[in-house]
Structures are given as C-alpha cells and as structure tokens.
Write a sequence for this structure.
C-alpha cells in the first residue's frame, strides 16, 4: 500500500473501532469484499445505498446479478416512489448494508450528508453489519475540511447527477438553499464505531467517487 495518507487513515480508523481492509485499487477492493467479507453473509438479508465508489468496484453489479441472494433493492426503477421509501425503511433492518462515505478525517471520523437520512441512519444504527467502500480522495485533514468538501464538491455534483433543481447543481457550490429538492438535510459524524467493528471500511488507494 503506497500512500501514507491511506495508511495513516487506516491506523486512525482502527483506533476508533472500525474494521479496515486495504485495497490498492477497485479490482482488489472487489476481491477483498467477496473473499474476506461476503463469505460470512451469503445467507443474510442484504441492502445498499447510493455509492459511486461501490459501483466502481463492481460489487453492486455482482450482487444484483445473483438471483439466489436475499436482498432489498431500494433503487428499483420499476417500483413506485412509495414502494421505494418503504424498502428503504425495511433496509434499516438488513443484516448487511453497503454504501460509501462522503469524507473521512485524518483522525478517523466518518462524515456524511444525506437528503432523506436512510443512508446516514443505516450507517449509524440498524443493520447488523455495514461495509463502506472509500477512495483515498475522501480523506481530509479536519472536520471543517470534511464539511467544505461535502458542501462544495460532493453535494453539488450529486445534486447535478440526480437532476435536482438546486442552485448548487448550477454553480457547483453550496448556497444553503431552501429548494424543495435540496439534498443536504441530515448530517452524520461518527467519532467511533459502536459496537466495535460493526462497520467495515474498504479503504482504496485510488481516487473514486465524488
């Protein structure tokens, strides 16, 4: 593993109770998941939230292609909005929940911002096990850096890719708007992981996601 920033982040996360797997790139991240994490969860109820990093590893495509898995798909394009919301509620009781994170501080804190709160809620409490796929570009020095990264980088780009009618989707920076389509509603900061190792972080030495 080449990047000192990644290695130092791993040390901080472990000290805060997170279980950490290192991967040199997205391909190795996929192997880490299916070889070291997934074997203990094949019969579990599985669900996931939005994460471009997870998608980039190929893990999500593999899970969706396996008809034998017990899963809750909260991104089913054929389902009505009410059904999707109900599935997201049910996903909070999954055995295994997969997603990413918006930022990690150098001292090992996870920082996230959500529109509805299903992703931040599931990371904090509900699913028995959570796996986060995280590229090295998500590592920042301080909480203020994390807030800035999310407000003025990740959130505007996410609003744009989801075709939200928000000022940030047009300008690329936060306006602290009152748009009905505002995606910045629920902040989450995890100082520690409780219970210890409930959350696993697959830390990837590659720039991935927003």
């Amino acid at each position: 593993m080449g990047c000192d920033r990644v290695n130092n982040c791993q040390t901080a996360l472990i000290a805060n109770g997170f279980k950490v797997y290192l991967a040199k790139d997205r391909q190795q991240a996929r192997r880490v998941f299916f070889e070291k994490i997934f074997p203990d969860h094949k019969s579990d109820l599985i669900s996931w939230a939005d994460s471009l990093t997870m998608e980039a590893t190929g893990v999500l495509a593999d899970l969706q292609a396996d008809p034998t898995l017990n899963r809750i798909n909260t991104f089913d394009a054929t389902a009505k909005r009410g059904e999707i919301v109900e599935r997201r509620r049910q996903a909070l009781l999954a055995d295994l929940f997969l997603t990413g994170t918006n930022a990690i501080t150098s001292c090992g804190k996870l920082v996230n911002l959500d529109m509805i709160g299903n992703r931040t809620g599931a990371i904090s409490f509900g699913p028995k096990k959570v796996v986060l796929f995280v590229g090295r570009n998500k590592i920042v020095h301080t909480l203020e850096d994390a807030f800035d990264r999310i407000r003025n980088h990740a959130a505007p780009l996410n609003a744009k890719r989801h075709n939200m009618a928000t000022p940030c989707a047009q300008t690329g920076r936060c306006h602290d708007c009152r748009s009905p389509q505002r995606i910045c509603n629920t902040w989450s900061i995890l100082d520690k992981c409780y219970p210890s190792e409930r959350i696993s972080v697959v830390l990837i030495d590659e720039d991935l996601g927003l």
